């Protein structure tokens, strides 16, 4: 029998032989061991449940400290874990730690490391800016850095950064190229981003071959669907051609997404 099991058995047996109140002590040598202590010895994994701390490795206390801090911040600040993980990844890339390995509890961003971090976020969008444009965007975010660092020491700790990140990660400048194009179109047409998303879902259904354009055949199928005219009765050719010309504003024989939104606002929705 393993030594640990023998000890446990002795320990439990010891509790069973302890005299109850009022019972004369028979001389049995016994030591009171709290049940919780026995459970802690027999179930060490219960101290840190894997589902709570999935990255826990007892031999790496610095990592544990960081993981606990990440979970605490997410819970206290109401930040979704996906967002928090992205914040952690960025912070670890650019922050400096007072003590090695404890970036989340002792690390900080200076203004220059914050600028590097913002540049990384801009690069990851895939959108290329010229130097003047990029400097302007960075200047704007440096302004938010000044107001985000709570203790006015000129550096941002992880908690400051987590709050900053959760409120700025959906800024248009940090969206990918497609999403930024959608936001620009939304402003150009005076349509809300939510409506633009809805139009895009309809457009993708009509664009059956996924070419990114609606051709004459796809357009005809769309008209049948919206007019609910049975195909065996058929739509008048002149009506179909007039509608297609109304939608195809640049007369290149197909309808792009912007044309589709304008046409839909006039004729479909
Ligand atoms: Ca198509
Ligand atoms: Ca066109």
TrEMBL record:
Residues 194-229, 235-269 form the EF-hand domain. It comes from the Eukaryota. Keywords: Calcium. Residues 1-31 are annotated as: Disordered. InterPro entries: EF-hand-dom_pair (IPR011992), EF_Hand_1_Ca_BS (IPR018247), EF_hand_dom (IPR002048). SMART domains: EFh (SM00054). PROSITE patterns: EF_HAND_1, EF_HAND_2. Coiled coil: none annotated. Pfam families: EF-hand_7. This is EF-hand domain-containing protein. It comes from Prorocentrum cordatum.
């Amino acid at each position: 029998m393993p030594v640990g099991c023998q000890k446990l058995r002795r320990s439990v047996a010891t509790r069973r032989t302890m005299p109850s109140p009022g019972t004369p002590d028979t001389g049995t040598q016994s030591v009171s061991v709290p049940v919780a202590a026995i459970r802690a010895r027999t179930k060490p994994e219960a101290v840190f449940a894997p589902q709570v701390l999935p990255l826990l490795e007892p031999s790496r206390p610095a990592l544990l400290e960081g993981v606990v801090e990440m979970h605490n911040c997410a819970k206290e600040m109401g930040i979704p874990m996906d967002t928090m993980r992205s914040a952690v990844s960025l912070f670890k890339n650019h922050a400096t730690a007072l003590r090695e390995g404890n970036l989340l509890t002792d690390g900080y961003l200076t203004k220059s490391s914050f600028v590097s971090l913002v540049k990384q976020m801009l690069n990851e969008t895939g959108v290329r800016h010229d130097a003047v444009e990029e400097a302007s965007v960075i200047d704007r975010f440096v302004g938010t850095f000044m107001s985000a660092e709570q203790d006015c020491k000129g550096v941002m700790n992880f908690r400051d950064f987590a709050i900053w990140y959760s409120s700025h990660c959906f800024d248009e400048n940090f969206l990918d190229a497609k999403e930024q194009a959608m936001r620009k179109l939304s402003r150009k047409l005076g349509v809300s981003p939510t409506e633009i998303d809805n139009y895009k879902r309809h457009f993708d259904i009509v664009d059956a071959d996924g070419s990114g354009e609606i051709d004459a055949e796809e357009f005809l199928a769309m008209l049948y669907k919206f007019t609910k005219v049975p195909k065996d009765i058929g739509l008048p050719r002149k009506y179909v051609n007039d509608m297609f010309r109304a939608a195809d504003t640049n007369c290149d024989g197909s309808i792009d997404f912007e044309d589709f939104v304008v046409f839909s606002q006039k004729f479909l929705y």
